[in-house]
Fold each of these.
Amino acid sequence: MTAVAPTIASGQRVEAKPEKRKGTGAWARRAPLLPALLFTIVVTQIPFILTVVYSFQSWNLVRPGSQHFVGFQNYADVFADSQFRGAMLNTVVLTVVCVFVALLLGLGLALLLDRKFLGRGVVRTLLITPFLILPAAGALLWKTTMFDPTYGLLNFVFGGETDWLSEFPLASVMAQIVWQWTPFMMLLILAGLQSQPKDVLEAAQVDGAGRWRTFASITLPHLSRYLQLSVLLGAIYIVNSFDAIFLMTQGGPGTASTNLPYYIYQRAFQGFDIGQSSAMGVIVVVLTLIVATFALRLMFRAFDVSKGVVK
Amino acid sequence: MRRRLGPASLTTATWVVAILFVFPLIWMVLTAFKQEADAYTDPPRIAFTPTLDQFASIFERGFLPYLGNSAFVTILSTLIVLLLGVPAAYALSLAPVPKTSNVLGFFLSTKMLPVVAAIIPLYVISQRTQLLDNVWALVILYTAMNLPLAIWMMRSFFLEVPTEMIEAGRVDGASLPTLLYRVILPVVAPGIAATALICVIFSWTEFFYAVNLTAARAGTVPVFLVGFITSEGLYWAQLSAAALLASLPVMIVGWIAQNHLVRGLSMGAVK
């Protein structure tokens, strides 16, 4: 019973109303939910409200007593800040490129794994492992053993004395992130491939459809929900990328590989500018909300949340 | 006409691609057992005498407290997630509360909000409540981080309980606690275990909160690794050993849970 089974009639699947019970009955139903709900509201919403409050203040931690209301001044400063715009552009580039490349590689690996062969379990286990090692460990590992100009394996294989991290900082960080996230994409797509109805595939074979034809007209449409989900979840995580940048390039050289999470971190924890970094946080939230509203709708449509909410 | 790629050559190709893909990891494992002098040579050295020296020096560098913090935070936050999440998932699946999809949407939306936007108030709050560099701050935050994911995932397991079983139990006059314990729990128990493993993976690997809200006393394993940026390039073998040790618990958990990884990573949306 996967939640992904095509539910064309999902529009009609209105959430069935729970039986009406009065007084204590209704509360008995809600009681199991409330602790989790209250906890989540308190821990996740209060910080965001405070971020908004701080964003209207001039407040630098190294200047005690500097805290006062300044209206939209922080926002004006942030929008005038070319480094902020650069960080924003880097975030978009990094997210789009990493999601796209990881998705393609993940699809390729998933297709390779979607057959019976000797040692399939071992190969799958190997392939998911980059996702399982600590991202911090992965970042340091790539920084040293792969990218080092003198002893790195990349230069050993390709020759030359390239200093990858200073010559191609953003691309190097992206390579590591893609490596880390490809297994994630692969796993989701593989789940999609293996949930294909076998009879339809066999029917296609009987009808004489070639491999490519079968892939394009049956597999790909079936996979689309899985691909959407992979893009959505991958983007949520990759937009927040911090470990790789912090550990590999420190956003540099200059600001060449600074993304928004790293820039906000820098302004807050190295510049101690609470007001401005909060304003940036709010801007990021607003942008994310716009994308997320769209994404949430997609997610609910793709996975028909009301399903099963009956009886 | 072009010949189709035979199954044998496709299998070989798959193996080659897989090994190339995980080569950085294989190299890390090899390096962890090298002496520093063997770790960075040009060209890279494949033959060497393996040693456990690097693992010993990791513990000399004070790895143990970090490991302890990670274990404490991970286990405790996972337990709290289950304590809060299992009843909530039940309330959102088998005994649905009104506006179930709104509640689910709310939980999901908290996963979509960027963590950077919360870190500043969290820092200020922790500072004022003496929770800065305190493991409890991480316990609370990791619980909040994993709870939505766990609720979504466990809900999908609850929805798999055959309704006939519940009906049959009701007809036999079983009370709700009996039903929960005898009928529902046995079916969802493996799902709860899988959810717990996913929470363990995410808590163990979390970096952003840990690095910003902890330091010497409450640092977790990823924070220990940060200590290597200053001495990068100098202690490759030691770094590899640390990276391996730090990742090993999660690697093992992930290998065990691999059949459930998909469901966890997709918040239960995909089996």
Amino acid sequence: MDPDKYQQAWHAQTAQPKVIVHADLLLEEVQRHQGNFQATIFWRDFREVGIAVLLLPIWFYLGIRTSSPWTWYLTVPALLWIIGFMLVDRFRHRPKPSEPGEPLIDCVKVSLAQVEHQIWLLRNVFWWYLLPFCISILAFFFHTAWLTSSAWWEFIASTLALSSLLAVVYGLVYFINQRAVRKQLQPRREELLALLMSLGDESSGESSGESTGEPETYAIVPASLSPFAEERFLTPSGAGIRNAVAMVVLVAALILVVVLVDMASRISDSQYAGTAQSSGVNGDALALQVTELREQKSLVGLAAMVMVDGKVGAVAAQGERIIGSGVSVEIDDRWHVGGITKSITATMIGRLIEADQMHWSDTVGSVFSEPNVHADWKSVTLRQLLTDIAGAPANFPRELWSHRPKPGIESTRARREAVMDVVSQPLPRPAGQMYSYSNVGMTIAGAMAEEVTGFSWEDLVKQEVFEPLELTGSGFGPPRSPSDTLPQPRGHRARLAGKFAMDDDADNTPIMGPSGTVHMTLRDLCTYATEHMQGDLGKGKLLSKETYERLHAAEQNQYACGWVVRYPDSRIPYKNYWHNGSNTMWYALVVFVPEKNMVVAVASNDGDSEKAEAAAWRVVEASVSRDPLPGQSAFAKKSPFAAIRWQGNQPEVMLDDDWFTLVSIGDVSVAQIVDFSKQKYDQLWQKRFEEDLVEVLTRMGHPPADSVTLIVESLFTGEQIKMENVVMSEENRKAIRAAARSRQDSSQ
Amino acid sequence: MLEKDHKTIFTNWLEEHSSSVMKVARAYTLTADECQDLAQEILLQAWRSLANFEGKASAPTWFYRVALHTAMNWQRKDKRRRSRQQPMLEVQAVPMDGPSSAEQAQQRDTVEQLYQAIHQLPKADAALVLLYLDEMSYREMAEVLGISESNVGVKLNRAKKSLSTLMNKESHGS
């Protein structure tokens, strides 16, 4: 046959087919599509809400684990918002179950409504989904950058980098959502509209004609069905499996992220396992505690010293000078003490006051005669500055933080300039009315000392404090520690990704030196604190008893001149004076307990001040509650009196079954003993007088013998009687204690 | 291109060339059910492809290209997925008034022989033969297949020879 004949035959058999759609099958397909769509949306919502719920405990865990600031937790309300929004949206737009006899057109309308709602959600995804997280995350980024930056450019660079990363991630999320609208939802909507229109036309056509009894069919362009074709290939069960797998993968990925973050955090923590250095009678016990606390708190290095009666009872150090270096910290290392510097500055000023070069009542206006000193500042007194009730701002402007003037004249000039900038402005709050912690206030006090004497603050501190007390391990700024030899610890700053060693120059600006740039060995720090503790007893080397009393007298909020007065509580049952310091790279705490004649100092080269502080107070509590040192004699529990009762502040004692008014014990008058007890033991002074008379007298510098000489006054004749060789007995003390307990029980 | 234009193009093409859908489907399948399935798939793919239609080629050429591409990839489809599909679309052939019964029977036999021969040809040659039987020009064939017109001539001559050989065998064999 000729090929042309093939074409003839081929065309002869050509038939124009008719494309028809069975209505029942179309309805079934639309319903299946609707079900698949609903399932897809349901599983999407389930994933979103499920992940948000899972993130809540994870967010708290990560926040605690990384010691994140409060802004980290702003994401929690954002997560709660997402959960609530999606649940409410799902409730308000919950799909109605399809009825068996539901017309096709109604089913299409329901599908169309669902699609249009999803389009609305995705087009507005920025407002209800991305924006809450943007706000919380950006707040955290800015806050963290603010806390960890030491220079303005570092802050800007950090915030730009983090914000850019967030913008990229969320921009991608937004793009994906809008792409889903364009590529999937919008075409689907148009197809449903087309189908709806064609169904409407068919319905109109049928209503005008008679029913022919033939199966209901539609001559519909198959294009209307193209969105369904994709869905037909996946059954509902298959979609469920896919969504379940996706959910498992997402949860696994989330857990993996948490694990990775935790591992990174742990790796960045010091893994040093070297032996602690220790010395002193209780050195081993202290070393064990220091080691445990350092590991528990994941600190780079930790050291502590306990000094009793001016002698080292225990000292220990464990950890690394630089994280990962393997070089251990030592008990003679130097540590940046930060805000503890405040009391050192106040002590120096106390010396100037005793030398009549300064006065407690000196004012800013009287020292700085510049005309630009603001009227608010002129009447602010030196004592107000020293006790943080001057109303001064907390810190200097950030632009000063990175200034590094050299110690001496250069620092003095820069400090004065910064101070003048502050005092030329109005006070943030009225002076003398309210306590407000201030680094600026103490710095101004230091600048006043410089102005009056003509010496730099550094020189004044050395002349008036370091040299007289022979604090040879003290200086200014971080201790020098070259990388090749590492003779001293290095400060470490805590960042999101872990801890990093800082350079020797990393510190507060020398401008605020009077508030916080001193470094000391623990021995020096304890020696200094012991001086203050002994000073109240009139045994100080630097200052008079009266001056020390002024330095330790709190004005407001239990804050004295660089000391916080802490009264007995359940954790430390003795009155104590303490201060801590941190420049965000180091931490130090010093506490002196007059009743125990004890000083405890703890220091760390880790800027995680929360954890370092927790560790430090644990050391203090343990040291205070520890049994007396073997070398330290426990005070005898004895009394010369059979009983004691009080007439106001005047004790009456029982001797040989008669009551007398007590006048003196040995060379110490009762008035002196009462004054001392009140000063040292606060509300417990009478109890101490009655039950611990030996300790009280010993701490006053008059340890009693086994028998004492008493001068008493007869209650009947008023005659003073001298009683010699009155025996101090434990029986008397027990009787007094029993009587005190009886009074206490009856009062309850 | 506007959505409405797409629909118009598709509708017009369907009205004028829907018979080609059946022929292509039958040429690449062996059973009536498979033919029906492939016809549906071709129609759906044609609609999906409209979004990419830019008017550079004529509509018949474009859709013929889609049909052949779909048919040649038909065997790669997951048969299990197709088995779950319900025949929502039905393409019914409408009988036409034809010549005398004897001549009609002869032509019907010829067409059956043509289909059997096409089934034995390589897929590319089968496509050429289909286009030839539809009396497309060399230029149109070139557009559909994406080759040059001269190449169409060379390949078509070879395919026609193969077809003649197969038809002769079928004729002698019957």
